[in-house]
Design a protein that fits this description.
By secondary structure, the chain is α/β, with parallel strands linked by helices. It has helices at residues 6-17, 23-34, 38-46, 58-71, 75-79, 103-112, 131-139, 152-165, 201-204, 209-212, 228-240, 256-265, and strands at 2-5, 51-54, 81-84, 87-90, 121-125, 144-149, 171-175, 189-194, 241-250, 268-275, 281-288. The protein contains twelve helices and eleven strands. The chain is elongated.
Length: 289
């Protein structure tokens, strides 16, 4: 551990933030590489004349920060870590960085299945880093889940993340496209969740470079209208859900009504468009029959 004065650190911190980016990204750098948590930052304000202990020296931290600013590479990829809900997850450019709004998927499940002691069987299609499935497996320890992804590299990351948080075996990972790894579970699922690629091609081409140049295209692009994968997931969902089983989808901010119509067409009921933190209809849910 490297010892520096709080005054020296605060001067350096102010200098780095003056270069650009934001406090949130800087906090990720400090926590993951420097070993300084948000709680640590809050406490040094109360003791500005004290000392601070770092895992890495300021030159190393500054080098990573400059790389982030120069190349527009997400700080989470440079650090290999992201924070999501109460999880600290490994990430690489093989997986999408889970967004804060996606946390609402977990809250939707909590609202539907209120008893954490329930023995549920669920699936997540396109798990990426495993964030959603891991949160649910931890919250419902008596339940069983299967998380799928088309990319074996993504599944390896998700598996490592799960092992880091749980010694249980109530979550399994399977490689394959959407429902294909679940062929032996027709009519078995209490619910299925997915945050599939849903960005229309014209919007994808205009994405900020920190997204378009670094995050996996396969996890973002949803075909010409953004609904290519959502259509497939909805059309095949009735084969795998129990009667009154739920399908919970994240979609683009302007797709809620279209997804709702797809659910109606495929005999779903109790359909609801759920808003995100910004009041945008980000999620569409429905119950099969």
């Amino acid at each position: 551990m490297l010892c520096i004065t709080v005054e020296e650190f605060l001067f350096w911190k102010k200098k780095q933030l003056s270069k650009g980016s934001n406090q949130e990204s800087f906090a990720v750098l400090l926590d993951c590489i420097g070993g300084i948590s948000n709680n640590d930052l809050n406490s040094i304000i109360l003791n500005p004349k004290g000392n601070l202990y770092l895992k890495k020296n300021l030159k190393i931290l500054e080098s990573i920060w400059d790389d982030h600013l120069l190349k527009s590479c997400p700080i989470q990829y440079l650090c290999g870590i992201t924070f999501w809900r109460d999880l600290k997850l490994k990430v690489t450019n093989k997986v999408l960085i889970p967004r804060p709004e996606t946390e609402i998927i977990v809250d939707i499940v909590f609202n539907i299945f209120r008893k954490k002691s329930e023995k549920l069987f669920f699936a997540e299609l396109g798990t990426g880093s495993g964030a959603v499935s891991i949160a649910l497996a931890l919250a419902y320890p008596l339940s069983e889940g299967i998380a799928t992804d088309i990319d074996q590299d993504a599944l390896e990351i998700a598996t490592k993340n799960y092992i880091n948080f749980s010694k249980k075996t109530n979550l399994k990972f399977c490689c394959g496209n959407w429902w294909s790894p679940l062929e032996s579970f027709h009519g078995k699922l209490d619910f299925a969740i997915s945050n599939p690629p849903y960005i229309p091609r014209d919007i994808y081409e205009k994405l900020p470079k920190e997204v378009k140049n670094f995050e996996p295209k396969v996890a973002l692009l949803g075909g010409e209208d953004g609904l290519k994968h959502i259509r497939e997931i909805i059309q095949k969902a009735p084969l795998f859900l129990k009667d009154k089983g739920w399908l919970i989808l994240e979609n683009h901010h302007d797709q809620g009504e279209k997804v709702k119509q797809l659910l109606i067409k495929n005999k779903f009921t109790s359909i609801e468009i759920v808003k995100d933190f910004s009041g945008i209809g980000r999620f569409t849910i429905g119950r099969y029959k």
